[in-house]
Amino acid sequence: MIFSTFLSALAYILHLVISVYIFVIIIAAVLSFANPDPYNKLVQVVYRLTEPVYDLIRRKIPTSFGGLDFAPLIVILVLQFIDKFFVEILSRYALSF
């Protein structure tokens, strides 16, 4: 019972973290079109949260086509896969106890 509750809570927290990070990626994508002040603290935080992941993707896959960078889309798709696959497995495993 305790282990089941722990796994269920872990699945929920993982889902929440993935959802918040997807929201941050969307904010970063919108900011990239708006050309904001790079010295703004909020802009710096958003870029610090997203750029390391974008760089990891860019090193593995060419993401720039026609002047558009598809790294945010790739990251969102990977996060959605993790959310739907692994978090769902974790949730179902927690319910099996």
TrEMBL record:
InterPro entries: CCB3/YggT (IPR003425). It holds the Pfam family CCB3_YggT. The chain crosses the membrane at residues 12-34, 61-82. Keywords: Membrane, Transmembrane, Transmembrane helix. The keyword Phosphoprotein does not apply. GO terms for cellular component: membrane. The keyword Transmembrane applies. Belongs to the YggT family. PANTHER family: PROTEIN COFACTOR ASSEMBLY OF COMPLEX C SUBUNIT B CCB3, CHLOROPLASTIC-RELATED (PTHR33219:SF14), YLMG HOMOLOG PROTEIN 2, CHLOROPLASTIC (PTHR33219). This is YggT family protein. It comes from Campylobacter portucalensis.
